[in-house]
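User: Fold this; tokens only.

Assistant: Input:
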Amino acid sequence: MGVTIALSLLGFNNRQLWSFLALVPFRMRARHEYHPIVTAGFIHGSGSHLALNMMTLYFFGPALELTAGSANFLGIYLISIVVGNLYPFFKYRNVPSYVAIGASGGISGVLFSLCMARPTDTYYVFFMIPMPAYVFAVLYTAYSIYAMRKVQDNIGHEAHLAGAIGGIVATFVLVPQIITIFSLFG
């Protein structure tokens, strides 16, 4: 969180740094600069964007870290950022105007990893609607797919979905022993 907050604050005041770290697939491909596949996950577009992502990480990250261990938590988070940025990189590599930033892919990966580890935990959507983690995961996935196709809102729904997939795969690879979702149904 500290690195993300620091880089985001620096980027708010230094547009050249922000642009250098941002995921701009067209430029990245033309210049063979691929660091933004990682660095874009550590900068944000506004204070509210940063606050929302860091608040979500603050609420869900410690639970996953306790469940999976610190090193595995970090691995899941970083893999989810990379996977979350790879999909839009390939999808928008021929679109000069596309720019993406934010930790949403990593945070989606953390959420889905935690849903796999603790599927019956109750999440409070919008702080008031109680929902089991596995139901949240299904609805989140359905909305992300719908929004990728229909919603024009400047939110990287592709990064959310790809990051969630990255979190699932990373969990299977790094800490398969924490996965309890299948025992829920069998």
